[in-house]
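Worked example

This section walks through a single chain of length 211. The input is the sequence exactly as stored; nothing has been trimmed or padded.
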Amino acid sequence: MAHDDDIYATGFGRTQVSADEAMHRLVEGNARFLAGQERFAGMQREALAALALEQRPYATILGCSDSRVAPELIFDAVLGELFVVRVAGNVLSPEVAGSLQYAGAHLQTPLFVVLGHGGCGAVKAALERRFRGVQHHSRIHLLLESILPALHDIDTRLDPAAQLAQAVEANVRWTIRQIRESPEGRARLAEGRLQVVGAIYDLESGQVRFL
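Given that input, the structure is written out below as tokens.
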């Protein structure tokens, strides 16, 4: 069921939605995206003026920088509905953690989604670094260091495509674990004010699979 009445008004002066409702909206949005029934067709001036005063996104998305994986599009969300943090490999760096802390402490989004995707280049590079000793530029190397802990249990007997798929999911779960085990994550989870989930976006089909 689409939230037609919320297309341009989600959040302004309204009670925060629950984590379950936020998840439901994401699932519905991806279904609209798959069906070619997206809602966004431009923003009315009144909606932009209201957003300039306040934002109350219903979910925070930590996703990859890959140009093919734009959360606002694949979840059919409009301005003000999602707080999105994007970094190659959807890793949790200090800067990313600061952004997530802002989302939790100030925006109080009830749902955090770590969004990986099939064929992730950052995860593939981390696999090459771990199992083949491939060297990368210094800054890329630092990024890959954040992914390597997720790859300890990767099955080296798998073919490359299956190994990468396993590594992508393992990396999402590793980031979730770090968020949940952070001091602020533990506090919000203990209060029942936060749900953290993982998801994988399929580049070919456009479908999001929640873990």
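What to look for: Helices lie at 19-35, 45-53, 71-74, 94-107, 121-132, 138-145, 160-181, 183-190.
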